[in-house]
Amino acid sequence: MVPLKKIKIKYLLLLAILPIFVITTALYTDGVTEAMNEKNELFSEERLITVVTASEGKSVQETIDGVMGEIGRFSLNTPQADDITMMMIRFNGTG
């Protein structure tokens, strides 16, 4: 399991300490976590964290596609009031 730390300025830092380490940073707008469904429930940071951690081992594009797909399934046809924007950066290095 990759430890997950929430940083105050709305991004997630995933860090695995191994002989070869990977740092993935996901930056996102509040439209991601505040996407609503028909019951006016928010997608939430908890759901975002669940989807991102479940994407361990996938490419950055696959992870973003997975998050966007999950937001789509969650919100169905509910119109969104805000933009939904994400950017991920992954660094693969050696320790």
Poorly predicted residue ranges: 6-13
Provide the structure class.
alpha+beta
Largest sheet: 4 strands, antiparallel
- The backbone outline, from C-alpha atoms, is elongated
Count of helix runs: 3
Work out the count of structural domains: 1
Subunit arrangement of the protein: single chain
Strand content range: 25-35%
Order of helices and strands: EEEHHHE
What is the number of beta strands? 4
Mean pLDDT: 80
Radius of gyration: 14 Å
> Gap between N and C termini, in Å?
18 Å
Report strand order across the widest sheet: 1-2-3-4
Classify the helix fraction into a percent range: 25-40%
Structural notes for this entry:
The protein is α+β, with helices and mostly antiparallel strands and 95 residues long. The chain has one domain. 33% of the residues lie in helices and 29% in strands. The chain has helices spanning 30-33, 44-54, 60-75, and strands at 4-7, 11-16, 20-28, 86-94. Strands 1-2-3-4 form a 4-stranded antiparallel β-sheet. A hairpin with a 3-residue loop joins strand 1 (4-7) and strand 2. The chain is elongated and about 45 Å long. The model is unreliable at 6-13 (pLDDT under 50).
